[in-house]
Amino acid sequence: MGLMNSKIEVAFQRLPGDVLKIFFRACGEIHCDEPLLELGEFEVSALCHALGNECREAEAVSGVQAARLTEPRSRFVFVNGWQSWSFAGELAGGERPRRACYKRALNLFVDHPAEVALRQRARRFGRRHDHISHCMLGLRAGDLRLMLVSDNVARYRGPLQTGGLPGAAAAAHVKRGAKPAGAASTGVPASHMEGTPAANTTLDAYLPPLSFLLRDNKIRVLAYAEGGFFARGEVIARVAVLIAPDYFALKEKLGTLWGAQWRFDDLRWLSCGGTAVEAAARAALGRDTRPKTSAPEVPARAPSFEGVIGGYASWYNHYTAIDERIIGEDLESIGANANIVNEYFIKRGRPTVFQIDDGWERTVGDWQPHPEKFPDGMARIAWRIAEKALIPGIWLAPFLLMPASNTVRAHPAWVLRDADGAPVKAGWNPNWGGDVWTLDLSLPEVEEYLVSLFDTVVNTWGYRYLKLDFLYAGLMRGAFAGRKGGAWQHYARIMARILEFSRARDGSPVAFLSCGAPIESTAPFMPLMRSGADTREHWEWLQARLIGHQGRPSAKVNMRDSIGRAILDKTLLLCDPDVIFCRTGRTSLKDTEKFLVGMLAAMFGSQIMSSDDPATFGKSGTPPDHLSEEVFTQQLIDWYGRMEGKEFGAERSLLRSRDVYHFFSRDRKIYGGINLSDREGMFMLSGTSADTGETETDVPAGESVRPSAAAPLPSHSILIFGA
Q1: pLDDT tens across 8-33, in order?
Q2: Judging by DSSP bridges, how do beta strands 391-396 and 574-576 pair with one another?
Q3: Among candidates 524, 26, 19, which has minimal Cα distance to 237?
């Protein structure tokens, strides 16, 4: 071990059947006045040594010595950004994610709240190029992988349930008076049943989110703990140390660590066939007279998650230019032709979301329907969606406020402010009018306001799929005016209150899609999460790229991040890669690019949404060298059939080639290359890579036979073998 904080005790622990973990405990009372609390520093070689036989076994299987993980010039570094719009993926030694250099306010969309303090530490010894990662950090040499993961993402299962907490935490919460695991429960939080807030004792298990700094062969661990207090002996952080000989071996360990077998139980109704959605539709219409059950049916010994969530979202079709007529036309057309939502979801009896995105509200922060655009209100639209046996969905950014909103004028004290009393800037969006502010989540009045908002959206209006956007604003730094504690504690409490509405008053289930979400602090509550930056109907956004906007809406950036977070799909998250495009009009994407977008969504995500215009399906002209919308849609569906039931992994191909990847199914029967770069690449089909020393293994008898040597990989394309 390297330098340690003298106020913190560090201990390695491995319980029978568990992975190696590092526990950080307070040696005495700690009041966190600084944004970051330094926990300790570890050498990569020391971590490998601590893993003992597990490391030696991984070396033997992978054929790679752990010493190569300490060599910056011959390893990949897996970096996970702070939130779901931030960069994720493997980097070579000298590479770093870009940040906006002209309009620096754009960095608010991707930065850690204490980004300045993090970068100061990364430069402390005159080095500007430490790798910064959040929640997890990985190293890869050949097939050998070492990963440090914050053990702080156990799925929240209600204030009186401890089944989802790791051993020591569960015992602590039973001791504090929580309901023992296995005790009878209705599946609905007590606070929701009784109508009053309950003591959310299990929230104490959620610790401050972690960041990792990698410098050469040393990894520093820091906690975003500002405002927190830790008593003597209290756990501040837990870090799992994992080593694996290949991609899927690591994914299995992550799934076991995070309880993937049951983690997504409350979301299975979105992909389990027509029964659940029909029940939700009947309930929304007030026609369901059957006895209400506490939870949707889940098959015994179900795998982590099967099937795919999908449907229609209005954003990339209309952006904010929506009203009752436009949404009504989309609704009437969605099941009337051969668009992909109808062909792949509705006609097959699969649950299908119909989601109204930004543009329905008066303004951001005033969550009432726009009186001119939606004069009949949002309940009427939800009723019409449910009447079509679709799942009513709606977009919200619950923590954001525009300075000119009625909410700010009526309740200026609700705005989160800095130490000087100025509003904390949570973003900049020219489409909304400029600077954006955020709520102070420490205030009891704000908590009750949010509870009332979600009660209206779910129980009065009838929406059953809520896309919650810009959630990072809930973890901004500020001078909290309400309850004591750190930002992560206020955030967890509010997220738990929102989850009280995961079952509507009529008994029907409600799903939440988190977007722009801090990954570590959101995953316990809303694991259905956007896995990258927003996509776009264009490959790149040149102006945003030139100024270094890391989280810019772009088909390329979206896919890059979604590939980077593929290992989290169905382990920590149900990844939402954003929408796919089949249309021929209002897009500059070529057919090969649209195919790439569509295939990566199916291979590396758990949700497929469309935002094409259903009313004009097949009516737009077909540009030269393009397939018609009907033909392209059917071909994509055919490929979905070939890939259905397969699980895929992906990793970067070469140290010297950025944005070029190879992918493979778990059974290795399907494999290929992905090229997101602007240059033609080469996909190595067999032999040895000069950069990494990786050698292809022989294919077992009965599996696909790979061609020899290499194959050209055109730019902006995917090359598939074995399907």
Answers
A1: 999 999 999 899 999 999 999 999 99
A2: unpaired
A3: 26
Cα separation, 352 vs 308, whole angstroms = 10
Q: The pTM is what? A: 0.90
Which pair of structure tokens corresponds to residue 255? 């799934």
Give me the residues paired with residue 696 across strands: none
Tell me the per-residue pLDDT of 530-569, one tens digit each, with 9 for 90 and over: 999 999 999 999 999 999 999 999 999 999 999 999 999 9
Per-residue pLDDT tens over the stretch 71-115: 999 999 999 999 999 999 999 988 999 999 988 999 999 999 999
pLDDT at 622 over 70: yes
The rounded Cα 697 to chain-centroid distance in angstroms is: 33
- What is d(CA 373, CA 243) in angstroms, rounded to the nearest whole number? 55
With bands split at pLDDT 50, 70 and 90, how would you rate the model's confidence at 202? Answer: confident
The C-alpha atoms of residue 653 and residue 689 are separated, in whole angstroms, by: 9
Identify whether the C-beta of residue 154 lies closer than 8 Å to the C-beta of residue 169.
Answer: yes
Q: Which of 504, 412, 388 is nearest to 457 (CA)?
A: 504
Q: Are 261 and 303 in contact (CB under 8 A)?
A: yes
Rg of the chain (C-alpha set): 25
Provide, rounded to the nearest whole percent, the portion of the chain with pLDDT above 70: 85
Are 19 and 241 spatial neighbours (Cβ–Cβ below 8 Å)? yes
List the structure tokens of 86.
């931030």
Q: CA 503, 506, 511 angle in degrees (round to 5)? A: 30
- Average pLDDT over the chain reads 88
Cα–Cα distance measured from residue 570 to residue 572, given in angstroms and rounded to the nearest whole number: 6
Report DSSP letters for 417-438, one per residue.
B-TTSPBPEEEEETTTTEEEEE
Residue 423 has a CB neighbour count (10 Å cut-off) of: 19
Q: Which helix (H) or strand (E) holds 386?
A: helix 377-387
The pLDDT tens digits of the residues spanning 283-293 come to 444 444 333 33
Q: Which two tokens stand for residue 307?
A: 């099937």
Amino acid at position 488, single letter: W
Q: Using CA atoms in the order 682, 687, 691, 694, what is the torsion angle rounded to 10 degrees? A: 120
**Six token digits for residue 704:** 């696909």
C-alpha 640/C-alpha 384 separation (Å) is 30
The pLDDT of residue 491 is 98
Q: Count Cβ neighbours within 10 Å for each residue of 565-595 and write b for 16 or more, e otherwise.
A: bbbbbbbbbbbbbbbbbbbbeebebebebbb
Give residue for tokens 């204030």. 159
Helix segments in 200-323, DSSP class H: 247-257, 260-263, 274-284, 315-318
Burial of 658 per CB tally in 10 Å (0-12, 13-18, 19+): middle
Backbone φ and ψ of 507, nearest 5°: 95, -10
